[in-house]
Amino acid sequence: MSVDNANNESNWNVERDDNGIAWVHFDKPGASANLLSQAAIKELDDIIKDFEKALPRAVVILSDKKDSFIFGADIKEFTALDNKEQALAFMHKGHALMDRLEALTCPTVSMVHGLCFGGGTELSLACDYIIASDDKKTKIGLPEIKLGIHPGYGGTARSIERCGPLAAMNIMLTGRALSARAAKKIKLIDEMVPLRQLKTAAEHYALTTPERKALPFLTRLSNFSLVRPLIASQMRKQVASKAREEHYPAPYSLINLWQKYAGDKKVMLEKEAIAVAELATTDTARNLVRVFFLQEQLKSQGKKIDFEVEHVHVIGGGIMGGDIASWCAIQGHSVTVQDQDPERLAQTMKRAQYSFKKKFKRDRRAIRDANDRLMADHRGAGVYRADIIIEAIFEDAEVKRSLYESIEPKMKPGAILATNTSSIKLEDLSSCLKNPGRLVGLHFFNPVALMPLVEIIRGNETDEKVVQQALAFGKNISKLPLAVKSSPGFLVNRILMPYILEAVTMVDEGIAPEVIDKAALKYGMPMGPIELADTVGLDICKSVANILSTALDMPLPDNLKELSDKKLGKKTGEGFYKYKEGKPIRDKSASYSNPQEVQDRLVLRLLNEATACLREGIVDEQDLIDAGVIFGTGFAPFRGGPLEYIRSTGVDELSQTLDSLKAKFGDRFEKDEGWSKLS
Ligand code: NAI
Q1: Can you give 12-81 as a three-state secondary structure string?
Q2: What's the mean pLDDT in 457-474?
């Protein structure tokens, strides 16, 4: 056995065994994960060129990183691309490598264990065989669509060739990551084996080159030129129900590429590079890449210290507490959930069953394990052993304080007390504690399982270590934690509320809810503000609005002032809309003479509040405002966040709109001083 190409700086080294197999190890120096950077592409290209001259018996590509194969291309390199020409040259280098690898006349095998995404999957697709470990950590996918592009190193044509168009387009259009089992099922990989047998299996494929079965006729039929337009139009419809072409062009570009060129692999590969070069330089792609890094920034907030949590105790098994408890159990923690009302607790446990099934589908063992981890605890025995206690009882400061007084003497030394309050100042709650420094806010969003953000509220008295522990806990339960100053509405509700209140004010003025929601969707919001208010519940909206309206001088619209118990939104079957089977009944004929003004009124209230939060230093860095608003409200990710939107549209242009809105609608459109702080 011999090793060449190995030096400390190179990404790859080649090891030749006695069977003549060249094992090509990927090990990016000084990094925990491998990225298919331009440097890594160039080096591998040189290695393959050497193989062309002295052909090994077979080539196996593998990673030396623990639990990760190749994480994808180096996204930072994308952000440096200024124009289409540069982007195309960039894509061509990747294409040249993949083509060369595919054309090698000896067998080639990709041996995958751990995360294999984007460029890593494309590299694997250029090999004759893909063998993966059946380990839980193995995940394979083509997630480029989430960054505003689609596979650009040959992954479009090659995944379709391997799996057929329906399965391949599905994974590319959704960007979802597949387990080895799921990847085998759609024929994306050839074999999955236990990790300990992975090397032997790769060797077996390299030496025996088993023939791959042709795809079934029906699968091949779906790639025929006569059939493609029909299927493509179905795909477009499905995509359109989730994303508009003007906001997210990549899925549409991918469907066009397939429809037009799938008949000729060579042409499809050429056109793929051109399409991705165009997409990579759009604002959408730039902003989605920004969102990716914002997400990483939030995750890194939770990495500053280790916080070992063995047991979580949740008090209050209502809408929030129940879901927080089951989420923590799903994430592997031992959890007790306490409620004063035994009936409520029984419902909580029943709902947890549903959450476990939803999460783990048919994996009965995972469901059973999650069940074992979650215990109903009417008497609150879990308080004694919990490392973190999460309080999610009624939104009433007096009730919360009396609970804290009763539990503080029972808490373990060093355990932290976290409140899910959405509006009460932490200082008003911590005053009753002997050790007020252990109280921190852990503000989850509803529905807990779907909303990625959790605000970590730093009260004036909260110990900094406790804040860091709460951030670490947030990250460990797979949420994106954001440290926020204790002030009315924190960050997310504060920025969202003026936008919702403006929408409700417009309903007061006689503008149809349908028109208002449509204007927001057109801007790129995932749901209109009126439907959102109905979904959250008008009583809850009113209570948050009440708190903010006093603190921030935001008058409550008449429509919210007096609520009927029968019209609290979706939960009672009627709010601003009437609901049928959980869906709002809309008046399709509703219209308004100036829909742009409706959009401006909504968006500028939101932007103005975002700049106020910037001025007040509600979060530690400017970018974190964008991160919080995107992950806490779903704010149009392709716009990069409210502050980024202001920067890209231009402060002057938006200021003019704000001025004219102020002239027409009053002082709530007064420009905040925070606009001048934008950098
Ligand atoms: P909920 O009314 O659904 O549940 C509260 C639960 O706490 C009830 O089951 C009640 O029996 C229990 N409880 C009350 N006092 C108790 C005590 N002393 N000991 C044990 N159990 C007690 O309320 P929800 O909506 O779950 O809200 C809980 C907290 O979460 C509130 O502070 C709220 O502001 C906050 N929050 C609510 C959100 C929402 O969308 N509902 C979103 C984010 C935060």
Answers
A1: EEEEECCCCEEEEEECCCCCCCCCECHHHHHHHHHHHHHHHHCCCCEEEEEECCCCEEECCECHHHHHCC
A2: 97
Are 65 and 27 contacting, i.e. CB atoms less than 8 angstroms apart?
yes
pLDDT in tens, 264-312: 999 999 999 999 999 999 999 999 999 999 999 999 998 889 999 999 9
Residue 595, ligand 1, Cβ within 6 A: no
The predicted-structure confidence for 214-223, as pLDDT tens digits, reads as follows 999 999 999 9
Order of strands, sheet of 416-419, starting from the edge strand that comes earlier in the sequence:
374-376, 334-338, 311-315, 388-391, 416-419, 439-444, 453-458, 480-485
Number of continuous H segments (helices) and E segments (strands) in the chain: 28, 21
Residue closest to 452 by CA, chosen among 623, 631, 300, 297 = 631
Structural class in CATH, domain 2-281? alpha beta
Under CATH, which architecture does the 493-678 domain have?
Orthogonal Bundle (1.10)
What residues act catalytically? 422, 443, 455, 493
pTM recorded for the entire structure: 0.91
Q: Is 253 in the pocket of ligand 1 (CB under 6 A)?
A: no
Residue 154 sits at the vertex; the CA angle it makes with 151 and 157, to the nearest 5 degrees, is: 95
**Residue 608 near residue 669 (C-beta atoms within 8 A):** yes
Mean pLDDT of 217-243: 95
Residue 361's φ and ψ, nearest 5 degrees, are 50, -115
Q: What is the token pair recorded at 133?
A: 């470990």
The token pair at 609 is: 């509040």
**What residue owns the CA closest to ligand 1's atom 25?**
319
- Structural tokens at position 392: 């999610």
CATH class of the domain whose range is 302-486: alpha beta
657 three-class SS = helix
Confidence class for position 553, pLDDT limits 50, 70, 90: confident
pLDDT of residue 5 exceeding 70, the answer is no
For the chain, the structural domain boundaries read 2-281, 302-486, 493-678
